[in-house]
Amino acid sequence: MEFYDSHCHLDPLRYGGEISDVLARSRAAGVSRLTVIGTRAADSEAAANLCAMEPGLVCAAGIHPNDTTEIEPDEWDRVTRLIVSGRVAAVGETGLDWYRDTASHEVQRDFFDRHIRLAQKLCLPLVIHCRESIRDVLDTLAAARHHGPLTGVLHSFTGTAEEAAEAVDLGFFLGFAGMVTFRSAESIRQVATTVPADRLLIETDSPFLSPEPLRGRRNEPAHLIHTARCLAIARGESLESLAATTTANACRLFRQRES
Ligand SMILES: [Zn+2]
Question: Which burial class, exposed, middle or buried, applies to 229 when counting CB atoms under 10 A from its CB (0-12, 13-18, 19+)?
Fold first, then answer.
């Protein structure tokens, strides 16, 4: 069985010298494919360097919405250069966060638009963060589709079944993270059962929010198996079938050959 962690932050800035151990544990657990996500210029560049050396890894480059007002003046140019260089499989992490509110809505919207335009120009998928902003994210994506084709993933999805269906209609995938394993997350599990099999992705969002039963520990891609098992049970399918579909979906989205 092969698993694809479609969203992890696995850069040396967060894991220090432990990256090779983290990757070894990941591969031993069957999580042999990863999309490593950048949130600033430095971790995007580090992710691209890591992916150039490690088989099964691709990366996304972007400026996280919560960081949009903190970046250095050259960071957007560095991220753009990296994306244009062809070394990335996706644009992001981008999106809108009305929960943390560390950056003004106006600045967040400006950066979200920039990422969308870049993704459309280069025909790359988008990796989208949305927190208490799903209505605005869906409306923005619907409007952007008038300017050309667009696809991507709403990562760590926690919206309703109706919002999930709307995202699917817009051509997007939905990524489910460790939160689905939490006892209190019955509604997210319920929504996950409504997502069409060909649009479902799984992710760890490492190093954040480990799934049950590892809650409270630093997350890493090897932990994906717990989220996968929980989703397979919720959807009434075998772990093998969930692994196969979510891996095929991620390969399709990030344009990777299936092995
Ligand atoms: Zn993330």
Answer: middle
Q: How far is the CA of 93 from the centre of ligand 1 (A)?
A: 6
Q: pLDDT tier at 61 (50, 70, 90 boundaries)?
A: very high
Give the E-state strand segments of the chain in sequence order.
Answer: 3-8, 31-37, 57-61, 90-97, 126-131, 152-154, 172-176, 200-202
Cα 9-38-226 angle, rounded to 5 deg: 25
Distance 8 CA to ligand 1 centre (A): 6
pLDDT band at 16 (very low <50, low <70, confident <90, very high): confident
Of the pLDDT bands very low, low, confident and very high (cuts 50, 70, 90), residue 102 is confident
- CB atoms closer than 10 angstroms to residue 177: 28
Q: Is 78 helix (H, G, I), strand (E, B) or coil?
A: helix
Whole-number Å distance, alpha carbon 129 to ligand 1 midpoint, is: 7
Work out the end-to-end distance of the chain between its first and last CA atoms, rounded to an integer number of angstroms.
12
What would the mean pLDDT of 46-62 be, rounded to a whole number?
A: 96
Q: What's the angle, vertex CA 81, arms to CA 65 and CA 106, rounded to 5? A: 25
What CA dihedral angle connects 119, 120, 122 and 124, to 10 degrees? 50
| Distance in Å, CA 64 to ligand 1 centroid | 8
Number of residues written out for the chain = 259
66 CA distance to ligand 1 centroid (A)?
11
